[in-house]
TrEMBL record:
<feature type="domain" description="FAD/NAD(P)-binding">
    <location>
        <begin position="156"/>
        <end position="274"/>
    </location>
</feature>
<protein>
    <submittedName>
        <fullName>Sulfide:quinone oxidoreductase</fullName>
        <ecNumber>1.8.5.-</ecNumber>
    </submittedName>
</protein>
<dbReference type="InterPro" id="IPR005939">
    <property type="entry name" value="BLH_phosphatase-like"/>
</dbReference>
<dbReference type="InterPro" id="IPR029021">
    <property type="entry name" value="Prot-tyrosine_phosphatase-like"/>
</dbReference>
<feature type="domain" description="Beta-lactamase hydrolase-like protein phosphatase-like">
    <location>
        <begin position="2"/>
        <end position="109"/>
    </location>
</feature>
<dbReference type="InterPro" id="IPR015904">
    <property type="entry name" value="Sulphide_quinone_reductase"/>
</dbReference>
<dbReference type="GO" id="GO:0016491">
    <property type="term" value="F:oxidoreductase activity"/>
</dbReference>
<dbReference type="Pfam" id="PF04273">
    <property type="entry name" value="BLH_phosphatase"/>
</dbReference>
<dbReference type="InterPro" id="IPR036188">
    <property type="entry name" value="FAD/NAD-bd_sf"/>
</dbReference>
<dbReference type="Pfam" id="PF07992">
    <property type="entry name" value="Pyr_redox_2"/>
</dbReference>
<keyword id="KW-0560">Oxidoreductase</keyword>
<dbReference type="InterPro" id="IPR023753">
    <property type="entry name" value="FAD/NAD-binding_dom"/>
</dbReference>
């Protein structure tokens, strides 16, 4: 090996062989940086091969491929980030070592000066004097805005949002390629298993069992930026954080979730969590739902569902079914008037599941009100105001008294998504429904609740999408065609009574996509086994499977090609 030491932190060399990784360990190196694009010449080891060889030798590895004539600011930022993150000393290589030395010089000149980097490179055998104009420009720019430059970072893959979709995607990416530099941006201190909140509202789960510290869930090897995103700048391959810092990326995966628009309902925020007003869509109020259900002896119980799209479209009626089941078991069902106010036109969007659900609507004596949109809640007077749309389009308003009301809030994309170049006309991130790639920015992908796809917004959908995103992101990084396609799969376990569930599983266009054969679980009928799946199996599958990159029953079919 022709290793040329620049300083105590870094040396550079021409292409190294796979079998030389162990020798580098013996020489005291801790990390390797490859600056060669894959396939640059015949017989060249790929980055994945080098990553495996480095790992086997106990070395860290980072791939920052560049073409000598086209080294951009993002490449320099990526190299600078690697210099900060990787254990030292580092060996950086390319075909001759020149690109590696060039990247080092360009990334370090702002902090140690152009004369110092040129002298160090020359001592190592690399005359980079032709870089002086660029080095000088970089140094001057840095001196003028040192604060901004010091606070900016770069990565291979930037993931916005550490919910179910974001963490699962990070885990699936690292499962496939351990050498990726991944940054995950999310301000939350805790992570919630939100599908469990319906069960909290039904007295089945304890609220504390549905949350865990975020720091315990971020995959090893992923850098967590505990911050909020203020803006997307896809034309510059970067995002802006709320504190002004910028993160550059080669690939962006946007999974920022959905905004619960509580303020869209007049008076709701002032009374939520008291005066009989509750919601399973909030960690703090889901226990209040169960308290109200237990203590209600008679009167009127309202359950509401806003216009679509919303996360887990079955959740508003799940609250109704579990409440009705308790009152039925307690012999109170005849004393309580249940009303379901749905802004939409049907009980459930996939007709195959409606007959089973209607049996429970009858059992609990629930009155269905379609085209009924909640406008306002007055907690002190215990009144709710609805806009009712008739078949001919006529809209009338109605005020209904209640003893308890379970509210599902209207939902929209986060503000910084709606105001960004990534958004479609409806405010969601504009992606192809099969590949989940952005329609205008090929190095941007999106999944989860904020993606502009027509599937049901559920954790099950994100679980299916994450490995598809991982496959397609890596393919685009490698300049290859995307191998995986999403069929719109989503699942909604409808808790129709304690101990039984109608397991709705479907894809684009309402096509049924059952995981199990009907002789095991017939999703169109209430099932005790489906209840066991929801109550006992799915939480550990979520915590220990989905968030760890274990793709049980959701590994993508790579024979399919995204449209």
């Amino acid at each position: 090996m022709d290793i040329r030491k620049i300083n105590d932190s870094i040396s550079v060399s021409p292409q190294i062989k796979l079998e030389e990784a162990h020798e580098l360990t013996q020489l005291g190196f801790k990390s390797i940086i490859s600056n060669r694009p894959d396939g640059e010449e015949s017989g060249q080891p790929t980055a994945d091969m080098m990553c495996l060889a480095a790992e086997a030798a106990g070395l860290e590895f980072r791939h920052i491929p560049v073409v000598a004539s086209d080294i951009g600011d993002r490449d320099i930022a990526l190299f600078d980030e690697a210099m900060k993150d990787l254990p030292k000393p580092i060996l950086a290589f390319c075909r001759s070592g020149t690109r590696a030395a060039t990247l080092w010089a360009l990334s370090q000149a702002p902090s140690i000066g152009e004369d110092t980097v040129l002298s160090a490179a020359k001592s190592a055998g690399y005359d980079l004097s032709q870089l002086r104009p660029r080095l000088s420009s970089t140094s001057n720019t840095e001196n003028m805005s040192a604060k901004d430059a010091k606070s900016s970072t770069a990565c291979d893959v930037l993931i916005v949002g550490a919910g179910a979709a974001g963490i699962a995607t990070a885990a699936s990416l690292l499962k496939r390629r351990k050498c990726l530099s991944i940054v995950l941006v999310d301000p939350s201190e805790r992570h919630a298993y939100q599908p469990g909140w319906t069960m909290v509202g039904g007295g089945i789960f304890k609220p504390e069992d549905t949350v865990r510290p975020m720091r315990d869930l971020i995959p090893d090897g992923v850098k967590w930026e505990k911050a909020s995103v203020a803006a997307f700048e896809p034309d510059h391959d970067r995002v802006v954080l709320s504190d002004g810092r910028r993160i550059s990326y080669r690939m962006l995966v946007a999974a920022p979730g959905i905004k619960l628009n509580w303020s869209a309902i007049e008076g709701l925020e002032e009374t939520l969590g008291r005066n009989g007003v509750t919601s399973n869509y909030h960690y703090d109020t889901a226990p209040y739902t169960w308290s109200l259900v237990q203590n209600l002896k008679g009167g009127r119980a309202l359950f509401t569902q806003p216009p679509m799209p919303i996360k887990c479209a079955g959740a508003p009626q799940k609250a109704m079914y579990l409440s009705g089941d308790h009152w039925f078991r307690q012999g109170r069902i005849n004393d309580i008037s249940i009303q379901f106010h749905n802004a939409g036109p049907v009980l459930f969007g996939v007709k195959d599941y409606v007959p089973a659900l209607m049996e429970y609507v009858k059992k609990y004596r629930a009155n269905l009100n379609f085209g009924s949109k909640l406008l306002a809640v007055d907690g002190t007077r215990k009144e709710a105001r609805f806009a009712n749309t008739a078949a001919d389009g006529t809209v009338t308003e109605e005020t209904v008294g209640f003893d308890m009301i379970h509210v599902c809030p209207p939902q929209v994309a986060p503000d910084f998504v709606r105001d960004s170049p990534l958004a479609n006309q409806a405010g969601w991130i504009e992606v192809d429904e099969a590949s989940l790639q952005h329609k205008r920015y090929p190095n941007v992908f999106s999944l989860g609740d904020a993606a502009g796809t027509s599937n049901a917004k559920t954790a099950a959908a994100a679980r299916k999408q994450a490995p598809i995103i991982a496959e397609n992101v890596l393919a685009v990084l490698d300049g290859k065609s995307m191998p995986a396609a999403y069929d719109g799969y989503g699942s909604c376990p409808l808790t129709v009574e304690r101990g039984k569930i109608v397991l709705a599983e479907f894809g684009y266009g309402g096509k049924l996509l059952p995981t199990f054969p009907t002789w095991i679980i017939d999703g169109t009928k209430p099932s005790s086994l489906a209840w066991y799946l929801k109550a006992e199996a799915l939480p550990p599958i979520y915590w220990h499977g989905m968030l760890k990159g274990r793709e049980w029953l959701v590994s993508p079919d790579l024979k399919k090609t995204a449209a």
